[in-house]
Fold these 2 entries.
Entry 1:
Amino acid sequence: GESVGLHLPTLSVQEGDNSIINCAYSNSASDYFIWYKQESGKGPQFIIDIRSNMDKRQGQRVTVLLNKTVKHLSLQIAATQPGDSAVYFCAENNNAGNMLTFGGGTRLMVKP
Amino acid sequence: NAGVTQTPKFQVLKTGQSMTLQCAQDMNHEYMSWYRQDPGMGLRLIHYSVGAGITDQGEVPNGYNVSRSTTEDFPLRLLSAAPSQTSVYFCASSYNRADTQYFGPGTRLTVL
């Protein structure tokens, strides 16, 4: 069936380096994508979103890239900090917009 | 605004017991939803509501009931708890079903 998934379950980066977290989706009709950050013991927190009519969207230290040709989504974090350590989920909104489908998550570990 | 609140934070039940997980939001959001999160997995949608008096099933609805008598509240009921329902439960809300969802802090439920 249609699904959203992630390539890497764990990503370890050095403090100050840039991080790239990837996500593949299979529903070509999805038109809205969201990245969430989840710290231990907390609920998912919205980071950034992008609609299918865009290829790139930037926030504060974060950039989301959408490649609709290969159905790939990525989250780039610039100058990664210890506070960025968390699990990151990508999610897609389906055609009807009733359900948010989540990927399995990638754990980002920042080494000092 | 308190945002999305959930009670209790932790709960231990015996098999066969019933209980209600509470969720409330003060943002006047129409759309509310319940997810469960199991270790190593993403969030899976249990039930959702697009407005007061309207509820619908998500991906994993079996064993759970919901109601939406007011815009603010969206309780999740377990009629007869089973060990398979041991999980962390998150409530989320958004302005409408196509908008970004905001999550509560979660309820950690253990069924013995």
Entry 2:
Amino acid sequence: AQSVAQPEDQVNVAEGNPLTVKCTYSVSGNPYLFWYVQYPNRGLQFLLKYITGDNLVKGSYGFEAEFNKSQTSFHLKKPSALVSDSALYFCAVRDGGVDSNYQLIWGAGTKLIIKP
Amino acid sequence: EAQVTQNPRYLITVTGKKLTVTCSQNMNHEYMSWYRQDPGLGLRQIYYSMNVEVTDKGDVPEGYKVSRKEKRNFPLILESPSPNQTSLYFCASSFSGTLIYEQYFGPGTRLTVT
């Protein structure tokens, strides 16, 4: 079955430190992987994607993510966290299975808290 | 300004009273979708539309209806709401092809069914 997991409900990081938000997936075929961010009382915003090519993809607001095929992971990273990065982060993967409708499968979300 | 708008933003209603949540986008997007967001469950897709007059069920379509008569509008209809439909609802839109995955989201509609 196609699935995506975000193993941490919450991640706490001090401002200025590097941050990582974890995501692992299970899909048929080649994965299309995405990260979205949801700020309080707002809709989701697209951050970055991996479809093919370089395993390290760069996105908005200084975020990047590393695709690791052997570990079936797509962790979100940022070298130096800002308080304004505090938000809910969602990982998503395209369902490419035989019976799929090619829609996105969403993780449960990880709350990122950056402390001053 | 490019945006997806939803109305109402907040709604409290009673079981069985039909309601419609409107969604409109001004970006000429072909693709539109409705999601519900519940704590610990992430986003679950209700219905989606690849273009005008083309709609399809998502993961949790029971109790919902949609229509796509115009490209810009994609209303969500709850014919007989029940308390288990209390949730935060998001409409999203995008261009077609691989851009379908770069979705623009509305601000959300918080629905409470008592």
